[in-house]
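Hey, I'm writing a tutorial for new members on how sequence and structure tokens pair up, and I'd like a real worked example in the thread rather than a made-up one. If someone can provide the structure for the chain below, I'll link this post from the tutorial.
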Amino acid sequence: MDQEGQAGVQRVMEDVADRIDLFAQRWRDALTGCQAIPLRVVEFACGSANDYRYFVEYGLAQFLDYTGIDLSEKNVANAKRRFPDTDFRVGSILSLPEKRRSVDYVIGYDILEHLSLQGMFTALKTAERIARRGLYFAFFRMDEVPEHEEHPRGSYHYNLLSVDRMREYMDKRYAKVQLIHIARMFEDEYDYRWSYDYNRRAYSLIAEGPR
């Protein structure tokens, strides 16, 4: 993300800072007393429990049989220090030992654009192989462009992914596919215009029902 984008993120975080705890408390209240068989979930590129912490804060972790995978030993050590009773492992999302259809869902946040296109499809195939119910991935650089664009940046990538090509790929593999444009969802469903619209390229992918 460039400096302008980072500044936008910071402004938004400052705007909602006084409401973050409120959102979390509302989730916890809504889930109080709920019971369910935990979903078996694997997170690709979990970092230092960057996203898992919100599962805990919002009361969702109790419903997950969770494993976080990250290539960085330092990240995994940090995650284990923060949540010592949670399963965090060092590993490559391009090649995981989990058996076919051995987990319910595979999730990942802002990771696929940082892989080569070949690496991205390898990671997706890994996710498809081990997930029996579906996938959830968040994207930070996706747009209505004709083709995926590969942009190497030193040791990683900063790709721009095509909405149409991703939908085409997923439609062949899953019965139900949603690609949600985040800013448009807030505008259309909640009549909410972001004051600091720093990322019109943020999308979420939900794919369920493997074919």
